[in-house]
Design goal:
It is a single chain. The chain is of the alpha/beta class and about 400 residues long. The strands form 3 sheets. The chain has an 8-stranded mixed sheet, sandwiched between helices. Helix content is about 45%, strand content about 15%. The structure holds nicotinamide-adenine-dinucleotide.
Amino acid sequence: MAKKIVVIGTGYVGLPLAIMLARSGYEVIGVDIEENIVNAINEGVLHLAEEEVKQIFKEPQVRKKLRAQKTPCEADVFIISMPTPLDEKKRIADLSQVIGGIESILPCLHLGNLVIIESTVPPLTCRQLIAPLIEKTGLRVGRDVFLCHCPERILPGDVFEEIVHNDRVIGGLDGKAAQMAKEIYASFVKGGLYLTDDVTAELVKLMENTYRDVNIALASEFAAVAEGLGVNIMQAIELANKHPRVNILKPGIGTGGHCIPVDPWFIKEVDPVNSRLIHTARLINDEVPYKIAAKIRCAVRGIKDPRIVVLGVTYKPDTYDTRNSPALKIINLLREDGYQVEAYDPLAKGYQYASIEEITKEADCLVVLVEHQVIKQELAHHETEIKKSIRHPLILRFYPERE
Ligand SMILES: NC(=O)c1ccc[n+]([C@@H]2O[C@H](COP(=O)([O-])OP(=O)(O)OC[C@H]3O[C@@H](n4cnc5c(N)ncnc54)[C@H](O)[C@@H]3O)[C@@H](O)[C@H]2O)c1
């Protein structure tokens, strides 16, 4: 049985995983190139805004079993959880950090090791890129060391619930690799553990986020068509969803976060011919912030030097995560045009405020880009006072309501 696990990259994915493995009794070494992250872990400070994970991090067993350092060391299992951002120019996966992580463990690898890739990667990456890198050591994948892709599905904001209860797909380059990885995940995952091959696991992860992206694009197109026809989109969606096999999503201000606007490109990268719908959905979703910015410009047209207060900067409601946020894109587009825009968000670090009434004093327009529950409630309870505090009683909301 594996005893010592090295987790390379202790961010949103790697650190909660390292904590859960330590709680299960493994000796865990979290490795990160960022010194402040390493120090924070060793001092028992969690740099992620995840309450339940914070509590588990304080447990004596976890504090005893988990430590962090800047470079890898020998172990039984290595888990790679480095970012795989989009190369914005080429619209392909930038695998440089994953490659860096693999290269950093090569001197530590020995007979019988298991390497698990948790990072999201384009199909064929494990067998065509990572296995040959590992084999530079002289160790053969499938004979001397074992390689597996176990993509992560967690939702920031609800990491503990999801890391424990979500089903997991475990894709081994061979059956032994998958079995070895299953044993590790079985130590804390209560969801199902489904074994398959590496390429299937790579594709499955991308299909999940692409499914969301395409459906969001569809909702967005429906909303635009409904607006042109003078139809209330929420009523139309509610009625369409009465069909037993229809489940249309709610339109919003575009897609964001770490995965959805990125992962569909990895499918297009490996098969552009068969991913036309996927590509089009990506373009539609990327266009939404431009359309919203245009609507805001239109709304404040008659106001001289309008002071715009924006509420909500996260990538979707009820999360603190601002990565790839379409709201931030809209704010930047308006600022680039010379508008005075102040941005607030009750959940995002650095954007907090006392009350909506307070921040809208002297404002010409309140733009609600992301409707967290707390924002909705405050608007519902204090709408009259808020309208009074805005110079022009202009409140723009982009999450359509059922009339
Ligand atoms: N965040 C999510 O919600 C989520 C969900 C599912 C899958 N994923 C995937 O998981 C992977 C990791 O994402 P994340 O959100 O945890 O990223 P992150 O940016 O939060 O964390 C990655 C960490 O890796 C460190 N790092 C980079 N290069 C390194 C190296 N060579 N050696 C050691 N440390 C290094 C960084 O300093 C950082 O702390 C990505 O492929 C992502 O697509 C993320």
